[in-house]
Write a structure and sequence with these properties.
Length: 105
């Protein structure tokens, strides 16, 4: 069985809005319809410690609300997302670092 090379998700953006922290993205070029996504995040005070987000593992939607997962709302965080399809996985794509209390994009 040939492995499909999944391209990474696009336009990966961490949004801080209405006291919610949401990672949003768009499907990669030529994605099969039943692709799912998995999200992790890291805090600026604990770099390279990527934390799993249990409610954003193998999800069909193209956003993940990270608010409840964050342990410290006063530290900047960034998130990453990868696409999963069968046994194929895309590379991770990271967002920018974002402050929970900053407004707008």
């Amino acid at each position: 069985s040939g492995h499909v090379q999944l391209l990474p998700p696009q336009n990966v953006t961490l949004l801080s809005k209405d006291f919610a922290m949401i990672l949003a993205w768009a499907p990669g070029e030529g994605f099969p319809p039943n692709v799912t996504y998995t999200v992790r995040y890291e805090s600026q005070d604990r770099l390279d410690k990527w934390v799993k987000v249990s409610h954003c593992k193998n999800i069909p939607r193209t956003f993940c609300n990270l608010t409840c997962a964050l342990s410290n709302l006063y530290v900047k965080v960034r998130a990453r997302v990868k696409a999963v399809w069968g046994r194929s996985q895309s590379p991770w794509v990271k967002s920018q670092f974002k402050d929970y209390y900053s407004d707008g994009e």
